[in-house]
Amino acid sequence: MITQVTRGIKISVNTSFEGTFFKNYKMHFAFGYTITIENQSKDSVQLTSRHWRIYDSLNELEVLDGEGVIGKKPVILPGESHTYSSGCLLASTVGAMKGHYNMVSINNSEKFRVYIPTFKFSAPFTLN
């Protein structure tokens, strides 16, 4: 598990290899990740958007921005957490992701970023 804390918001990431399949006549490698966002601060916060940098050893860097996470903009009270799972397709057996969440404090409307640590993907059969 990879973890990082920014301004009292702890991000924990677990990854998994989900398998291979063909799409558009090319082999793809599917990876899953589960992220837990734990509010260790004294303020209630809301996740408003996300920014991802996806690294694939056989492709160019892919940058993605979007609203919320998996269609939600969760409000996380002090001492509570929000967990979600998602995934990514790579052209290679090795890659990584990192990024940040844009958050807003419910208490004072202050906007801030919470950084997501770099987490790596690797298909089990690529490791010696």
TrEMBL record:
Tell me the domain of life: Bacteria
- ApaG domain residues: 3-128
UniProt GO BP: error-free translesion synthesis
Q: What InterPro entries does UniProt report for this protein, alphabetically?
A: ApaG_domain, ApaG_sf
PROSITE patterns xref list:
APAG
Quote the protein name from its UniProt record: Co2+/Mg2+ efflux protein ApaG
Q: Which organism is it from?
A: Arenibacter aquaticus
